[in-house]
Amino acid sequence: MRYTMMHGLELHTTITLDNISEHRGELLDAFAHVVEDHFFDQYAPSDSIGWKFHDEEEATALRTIVTLLLRIEDEVFGGEEAELAHHLWPQVVAAAHKALDLMRANDTHTIPGTSATYSDRPPARFLDMRADTEAGLEVLGTVSPENTGGRQGSVRNAIARVVEDNHYNESDPSESIGVKLHDEREATAMRTLVALVLRVSVDVETQDRVRDEHEYLTHPLWPEVAAAARATLRLMRMND
């Protein structure tokens, strides 16, 4: 996430009217990396500290460029050339340079009391998302028709935490590496689990009927789901 955003900033510093023909469409991608991903933080950039930003200074620098780009978007309707020709574009370039330089510098700083740099440490948001996924895996790996007492809704909640949040990575689990998964082994284990749960869901879920969790747990494939969840959880905890 952080490095995708930094790539977007870099594009804002390099694409000009002179070279736009070589970078057609990249400016739109850069806008998505920088602005759309942070739109809801425009007035509260601190919300992203520990997720994509190391500190308040980085968050404020991003807010500056987001504000400029949104102003240009409101005033321009002529495509990428019109954006690059806008009178505020030089300020966008300067703001992107400042934010990028700041983030690169922070990535090489040593964490006080350690020999590691900030780029070596998983952001807090990574750890939070990972813990949420692990909690869902624990439920999927232990719940059964015999031990669901007092846990109504736990299966659906676990599926939401683990599967629905990773559904779009089913064919390319590597997309979650650095977001909540450490490596390709974890991603592949998650893909196996997601594929199994989706097969169960297709059989259990029908239109115009409330899903009964007991139907998940008594499905012929559920033992495989539970085993895959336990295997994925063991791997993630070893890597933690």
Automatic annotation (TrEMBL):
Protein name: Uncharacterized protein
InterPro entries, per database record: DUF7945
Lineage: Bacteria, Bacillati, Actinomycetota, Actinomycetes, Pseudonocardiales
Listed Pfam families: DUF7945
Superkingdom to which the source organism belongs: Bacteria
